[in-house]
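Posted in: Protein Modeling Q&A

I'm a second-year student putting together a small comparison for a lab meeting, and my supervisor asked me to include a predicted structure for DM10 domain-containing protein. I've never done this before, so apologies if this is the wrong subforum. The sequence is pasted below exactly as I got it from our records. If anyone can share the structure token output, I'd also love a short note on what stands out.
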Amino acid sequence: MVKKFRINYFADGTVEILNPERTKTIMKRIPYKEVSLGMLYIGGAVTIFSRQYHIVDYADSGTRKRFEAKCGKAFGIIKGSAIGNVGEILGSIRNAGFVISDLKSVILEGEVVIGVLAASEIVGTEEAVSVFAETVLGLGFEMYVSATPEDVVKDSADYFGEGSLPNSYSNEECTLCLVKPHVIKEGNLGPILNDIIAAGFKFSCLQMFYLDRETSVEFYDVYRGVLPQYEDMVGHLIDGPVVALQIVGKNIVEDFREMCGPVNVELAKTLRPKTFRAVYGTDFAKSAVHCTDLPEDGGLECKYFFDILSQI
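Accepted answer (user: helix_wrangler)
Welcome! Here is the predicted structure, written out as tokens:
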């Protein structure tokens, strides 16, 4: 059973939740810093107190006009040799005032490409398209960029919407890397992808996911009753989007796990200060990345995300 709600987001960062008819308050208006304007777009999802809400439409025509005037969207596709510079490109997009709203690699004309949907909390759609184009094309990499707001709507729907191309998941020896929500919120998605590629790792698939509590509980079930931080781990995984990477290569599970470092961030900072968790992690739950523990689980974890969850 699917229930509908009305989420009201206010300029001061407060949020309230009502029933669609506005006759019943589900959640009183309170500050909720985990939700920002750039996260509110049709097709996206937000998590409020461990419950995930999928955004399907604007509440009214006035909201639509104000939202599209203040929160612009842009779309682009990273192609060819630029794939190796995905971290630099995403970092530049973020530095230009955009939030990455969706991300997926697919096979297009025989090669892997990465589609990027970005939202700006600073400029409207008309200006967002031009700022986005100037930002990414100015880097000199091979990219396609939607030329008009109408193209953004069409291109993003074709790329990410129902019936779109499947991701570039492949049946190879692999490990799963999940870039956790705090890394993305802190603007470090680009830098950590740069570091992963610079360390010599290759990914065959990349996709952004918005997980709900049920999925997070299922994925982390092996740690239930084992790690005292289990509830914190589950809670953080639904704090915002995660970016999943299928990283491929021989002995890849062990090699990538070594580069991630100890899951205890304080220990990682002391003993392995150059590892991903030491550089980007803050505590046990916000440890920057999840990586596959056992070689036999690499394929299973990647299949779970890129084959099963991606079709839900």
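A couple of things worth pointing out for your meeting: The chain has three domains: 6-64, 72-160, 174-311. The mean pLDDT is 92.
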